[in-house]
Structure formats: structure tokens, C-alpha cells
Write a structure and sequence with these properties.
single chain, Beta-Lactamase, elongated, Heat Shock Protein 90, five-stranded mixed β-sheet, Helix Hairpins, alpha+beta, EC 2.7.13.3
Length: about 500
């Protein structure tokens, strides 16, 4: 399945689920709102009814009387809104209507009314009255009325629940229409967003194909500040780096070919001279008095060949040591964690435990690849000489520098071994020449040279049988390096 369809499906599921949840939530909220609004309206109607119909006669011991004509008038006015009243006296007797079929207040509800509590009820079932008729399901409010802290009346105001539910259904229909419109608009917007993302991904794919075909000059148009925009910027930096590396490879290849041509030319003359002298001696064509001079000439040409070979070796040594360090700032702790993951299996084979003591963000200024090589070689060496022990990697900041310590609880070294540990081809334990890690004697020598190339320091502290601790110090970026890097940042 193409990515655009996957993205559309993901967007659709997220939007659909969100809309369904919102619909359910708003549906419940709308029902609650309509019910609360109906109850509030019924309470207001009840208050209006009591204000117009209830009178207190102070001359006859505050006797309460009801004006039934006003009750009937209020009832007739509110009949168009399907509101029905029942008025009760303080003794739970029906005052209005006097048809004998009005609903009665239950003992439980009456206890709430006597405590001056308003009762809100929803009767979802039809009720059978005493006259045999059926009373539709209603939503009701029971409200008490007091005079001088005495209950004087109670009113039951009700409306047909079918009317209330019809209002709820109408609101829900409008809500569903709105949600459907929102879903359609969201899907259209999602399509254009997905198409834009896929267009940028297709651009990256096209650029990657060009790079795989050897075109390192390709550059993509940057755009956006999201992850894909950052990926495009990384891609452009990668192709720029590849182009520089390719140019360097071509330059080195040209230099190699020039060197081989010059070496072949330089070696041809002495080899021809030596071959000629050997042929003369073989077939005895060189006079006896000239043989001493011929041998001296052959010796000189041999020394010349030796010098050429040494120059070749020196050239390769210089080329390997004059590496271009790409120093930059990065988090050393991430490197430690990656290396620990890579070497965890080797550590388990020796029953060793790898421990990291460093902050989550440990800044360091170094060549990333060479830093990995340095730490990897030292940790590998520590695992090699440790069995059923612990290798601890510690990282901390110093004054304008980063300090790294790699300590093991292995076999340790003597004082003489510590003096020579960074020498080329030196092996602290000669018995491990054929060990499973293939120690060649070059690992720590390479580490030493790389640390020096960074302008840093490396030292070792060890006790025989107690383990070893390697301390590496990487200095921060100098003012000269900052000045040198400034033009690159401006470009």
C-alpha cells in the first residue's frame, strides 16, 4: 500500500474516532442541557403559579388559601407548552386539579420536600391513573414553598418527555450534520497534507536515486521546518560531504597513479642496472678488474631501491596519519550507550558488566567517527583483559574540557607495561596474541595518535591484578578553530 493511502487511512481513523467521541460527548451534553433547561423552566412556571394563586391571611393565624381561578388561568396559558401542574397543600392533599386522578407525591419525595429540597424526576414509563387512563411519560419537578419556615404548599410541574426528547433529537441531528461536514472538510484537508508530504518524500527518493547513480552534485530545494525539512537539509549536507569526499578520492587516486608512475620510473633504472651486472657476472663478460666496481654499483642501486621502498612506506604512514578531523560538538553519552549496546554480547561472553556513569547530555568537541574508534578500542581492550568483572565508563566536564575514564577490574599491568602500552606492536600480555579479539598490538597505539591529533591527553593508571583505568581528556574548541569555522557557518 502506498504511503499516501496509509497516511489518509491514519488521518481518517484519527479524525473519525475523534468525531465519534466528540459526538457522543456533545450528545450527552445536549441531553443534559435540555433536561436542565426544562427543569429550570418548570421551576419558574411553578414559582409564577404560586405567586399568583397563593395567599396568606394574617388575620386568621396566617392561614394559606389558593385562588383556583388564577391557577386555572395559568394552567390554560401554559397548556400550549404542554406544561401540567398539580398543587398540594401542606398536608399532601391535592388542591388542584380536583379531578381525583392527579398523581400523588411518594413518601420519599415528600420527605425531601419537607427538608426544603427540590426534586427533579424523569418518568420514562407511562403511568396508569385511578380512572383507568394512561398518563404519558413526563419530566417533572417537585418544589416546596415555605412561609415563616413552615411548609405551606408543594407544586408538581411536568412536561411530556416526548416533547423534551424531540428537542434533544433535533439538536443531535444538527450536531451529526455538523460533524459530517467537519469530517468531509478534514478528509479533504488530510488529502492535501498527505499529498504534500508524499511529494516531498518522492523528491527525497529521487535525490537518493541520483546519489546511488553517482551524482553527488544533486541538491534538493529546502522547505518547511518540520522533520522532513530537516531531513532535506541533512540530505543536502550529506551530498555536499559526499561530493567533497568524491573529489578527495579522485585527487588521492590521481596522486596514487602519479606516485606509482614515478616509483616505476625510479625503480626501472636501478633494476635494469642490477639485472645487467648480474647477467655480466653470470656469463663472465665483465672483466675481473671491473667486477669490484660493478658490485659497488649494484650495492648503490640496491640502497637506492631500499630508499625508494622506505619512502613509499613513509608516504603511506604520512597519508594515514595526516587525517582530516571533522571536529564538531555532540553528545558523548549517546556514543557510550551505542557502544555498550554493540559490546554487550562480548561482555556477556566474559561474564563482564558494563556500567555507564554520565549525565544524559555530556557535550564534547571531537571528530565523531574517531571518537567512537577511540572509546570502542579502549572498551574492547578492557573486556579482553577482564573476566567476571566490571567495566565502568565515566564522563564528566572539566574546565574547558571533557574528561572520560574507562576503568576495568581485570588483570591490570605492571609499571613497565604501563610505560610501553602505547607503543606500536607492544602487547602487555603476549599470551593473547591469538586471542578471540585478534589483538595486533596496534589498537592502543592508534588510540594514542588519535587523541594527540585532537590536541588531547591520554594516560593510564593500573595495578597488577587490580585492574586499569584509562583517562582521556578532550579540549573544547579553541578560539582559532572558532575563527576557522566561522566562514563555513556563514555559507
Amino acid at each position: 500500500m502506498k504511503m499516501i493511502y496509509q497516511q489518509l487511512m491514519a488521518f481518517f481513523l484519527v479524525i473519525a474516532i475523534t468525531i465519534v467521541l466528540l459526538g457522543l460527548s456533545f450528545g450527552r451534553m445536549s441531553k443534559t442541557f435540555v433536561y436542565d433547561n426544562t427543569w429550570s423552566s418548570l421551576e419558574k412556571y411553578s414559582d409564577s403559579l404560586i405567586q399568583h394563586s397563593l395567599k396568606v391571611d394574617s388575620k386568621h393565624n396566617d392561614r394559606v388559601t389558593f385562588n383556583l381561578d388564577k391557577i386555572r388561568m395559568t394552567q390554560s396559558i401554559l397548556e400550549n407548552q404542554s406544561v401540567h401542574f398539580t398543587v398540594f397543600s401542606a398536608k399532601n392533599r391535592v388542591v388542584y386539579p380536583a379531578d381525583g386522578v392527579s398523581p400523588q407525591i411518594t413518601k420519599n419525595d415528600w420527605r425531601h420536600l419537607q427538608k426544603d429540597q427540590i426534586v427533579r424526576k424523569v418518568n420514562n414509563k407511562n403511568a396508569k391513573l385511578k380512572n383507568g387512563k394512561t398518563r404519558p411519560a413526563m419530566i417533572e419537578v417537585l418544589k416546596p414553598y415555605y412561609y415563616k419556615k413552615k411548609l405551606v404548599a408543594a407544586v408538581t410541574a411536568g412536561a411530556f418527555i416526548s416533547d423534551v426528547n424531540s428537542n434533544v433529537a433535533r439538536i443531535n441531528r444538527n450536531l451529526v450534520k455538523g460533524l459530517l461536514v467537519a469530517l468531509i472538510i478534514s478528509m479533504v484537508a488530510s488529502f492535501f497534507i498527505a499529498r504534500r508530504l508524499n511529494r516531498r518524500i518522492a523528491m527525497l527518493r529521487s535525490g537518493a536515486n541520483q546519489v546511488s547513480n553517482g551524482n553527488y552534485k544533486v541538491r534538493l530545494k529546502p522547505g518547511g521546518k518540520d522533520e522532513i525539512g530537516e531531513l532535506i537539509n541533512d540530505f543536502n549536507r550529506m551530498t555536499a560531504s559526499l561530493e567533497r569526499a568524491n573529489l578527495e578520492i579522485q585527487r588521492q587516486e590521481e596522486r596514487r597513479q602519479e606516485f606509482l608512475a614515478d616509483a616505476a620510473h625510479e625503480m626501472r633504472t636501478p633494476l635494469t642496472t642490477i639485472s645487467g651486472i648480474l647477467e655480466g657476472i653470470k656469463y663472465d663478460v665483465i672483466p675481473q678488474e671491473s667486477r669490484t666496481k660493478s658490485i659497488e654499483l649494484m650495492s648503490e642501486e640496491t640502497q637506492r631501491l631500499i630508499r625508494l621502498v622506505n619512502e613509499n612506506l613513509d608516504f603511506e604512514k604520512i597519508r594515514s596519519n595526516s587525517i582530516q578531523l571533522d571536529k564538531r560538538h555532540f553528545n558523548a553519552t549517546k556514543v557510550f550507550r551505542n557502544i555498550i549496546d554493540q559490546l554487550s554480547n562480548k561482555a556477556q561472553e566474559s561474564n563482564d558488566k558494563l556500567v555507564l556513569n554520565a549525565a544524559d547530555d555530556l557535550p564534547i568537541y571531537a571528530d565523531y567517527d574517531r571518537f567512537v574508534q577511540i572509546v570502542f578500542n579502549i572498551i574492547t581492550n578492557a573486556i579482553q583483559f577482564t573476566n567476571k568483572g566490571t567495566v565502568t565508563i565515566t564522563g564528566e566536564r572539566g574546565y574547558n574540557e571533557t574528561i572520560i575514564k574507562i576503568a576495568d577490574t581485570g588483570i591490570g599491568m605492571t609499571v613497565d607495561q604501563q610505560k610501553n602500552i602505547f607503543e606500536r606492536y607492544y602487547k602487555a600480555d603476549a599470551s593473547r596474541r591469538s586471542g578471540k579479539y585478534g589483538e595486533s598490538g596496534l589498537g592502543l597505539a592508534i588510540v594514542h595518535q588519535l587523541v594527540k591529533s585532537h590536541g588531547g591527553k591520554i594516560s593510564v593508571a593500573s595495578k597488577k591484578g587490580k585492574g586499569s583505568t584509562f583517562t582521556i581528556i578532550f579540549p573544547d574548541q579553541t578560539a582559532a578553530e572558532k575563527t576557522k569555522d566561522a566562514p563555513d557557518r556563514n555559507n
